[in-house]
Amino acid sequence: MIQTVLVANRGEIACRVFGTCRELGIATVAVYSDADAGALHVREADAAVRLPGAAPAETYLRGELIVKAALAAGADAVHPGYGFLSENAEFARAVADAGLVWIGPPPSAIEAMASKTRAKELMGLAPLTDVAESDLPVLVKAAAGGGGRGMRIVRTLDALPGELEAARSEAASAFGDGEVFVEPYIERGRHVEVQVLADAHGTVWALGTRDCSLQRRHQKVIEESPAPGLAPELVASLHDAAVSAARAVGYRGAGTVEFLVSEDGRAHFLEMNTRLQVEHPVTEAVFGIDLVALQILVAQGEPLPPAPPAAYGHAVEARLYAEDPATGWTPQAGLLHELSFPTRPPVNLGGGTPHAPGGAPWVRVDTGYTGGDTIGVHYDPMLAKVIAWAPTREAAVRRLAYALRRARVHGPVTNRELLVRSLEHPDFVGGRLDTGFYERNLDDLTGAAPGAELAAVAAALADAAARTGRVPAGAPAPALAQRLGAWRNLASQAQTKTYGDHEVRYRPTRDGGYEVLDAPGVRVVAALPHRVVLEVDGVVRNFDVTAYGDTVHVDSPVGAHTLAVRPRFTDPAERAEPGSLLAPMPGTVVRVGDGLAEGVRVTQGQPLVWLEAMKMEHKIVSPASGTLIALHAVPGRQVEVGALLAVVQEVQEDEES
Length: 657
Description:
Rossmann fold, 5 domains, 38 strands
């Protein structure tokens, strides 16, 4: 029997496995890089072993160091989590050779399926070799790993060489393997997958379906189970194909077989992930199982029941990322002040008991962060997975949107607003899903959030209350000195506070409250340092206000807003001259365009610098045609947000003529 498990992963992934181990009475061991020394997964483990360094290639991708750590800590089993070395057959063999239990599939199955090129050959398919114009568009993919890394859509032949090089570089950085291949790209397809679970006694489960079509950068954003609107015969064929794939390689443990379903309803095999997937909680919710517990059971040689439990209800998962969707999905880093979600007991919606391990919480949150943690630049920017279950799809989607809307996420920019709008979009609500959802709807989903003016009013009044100690009539009286400091014999002059583009003018009233000017229909009911109550056109609403220096977070039922106090005077040193290319996020310069040097002519949209942050590459392109008059980017150099990378002096049309 397994007594102690080392999880060869980090963050939310390690915390997820630790949670199940605690339920089973199994001790846990974490491994951590120097960048993760204070991380939540380290704090939650019973023991932890340091992996010197920060980059994945020198820490979490070093199998020999992880095996050594397991032995040193007295672990008798290794769970790879999902990502990093979870699909590395050599690592699986090293674990077994060290006398440890490998909680995963046999190395032979990993070898057969972990490389997408070999998996396609096993399924009777072959990647493209000589790409012609008629093959376009095509998809460049990494042969190892997943998560959208090393993946590029190519629509023109002249772009193919550069995208192949970029994909190889990104795949090598993320997985330690730079092999890539090319396959046809299906426009408006649905990404549908089947969770499989197999034991060593010949039993293979096919656990429903999942739809993972809402993706950005080929990474999943929102997933659900079951996949809506699939014909029963299509589901049956997907199950048959998934079980056949698992049996063909002698699979054991949890895995996922992925398909792309075209508009005409035909399913195309994509790959088999020989590991647990990030989106596995939606399957757990509808089947009422714990897949990690079943992984451990199978690793101990125990048999699965002949058939899985019956599925019931619907579950939807959203991935909360520290990223800015409006600026090319750029990852964000910095201090996470608070991360919390509304929770309460499950509601009986007239359909039985929710299928979720641990008594079915109203909403499940899997995360590797808590308030006070720092989001770094070395790893994936996912902050949390938020999962909602309900007897019907409509109710599950509504629950999840509400949980995200009322969450308190204070820190760097996130995709929270995009997630809420996605869940409320008519196409998503109607089950009209495909992988081009964000490409078509991104502008609408990232537009200015409504209610910013009211949020600014709340922020200004909370600030005023904190500084003066004024409270409305009937509220507890502040200290005498504060009351004297706020008293005026005559009507006060209007005060002004500016947050971004929103200017708020207000005036203290003699009853201890405030009057907001230039805001018809708005009446101040109460203004306290952390809560402001406004009556807007006869409707009373609460606004929770939290300030961190000059950044203010306002949370309310109408939405969450992050506001920045506009300084009265701008530091001239912070002004950037026209044509300046600034780093949109912290990261490492990995490439500079060939032949670039000061004085070289460049064209609008030409890639100049490539940054790597959180295991993804980001292109910085020239904003206009002109002359490169400064180039500060150097390959291998770390840069902070706003660092000057290059300056392009635009050439006017009359100059070119």
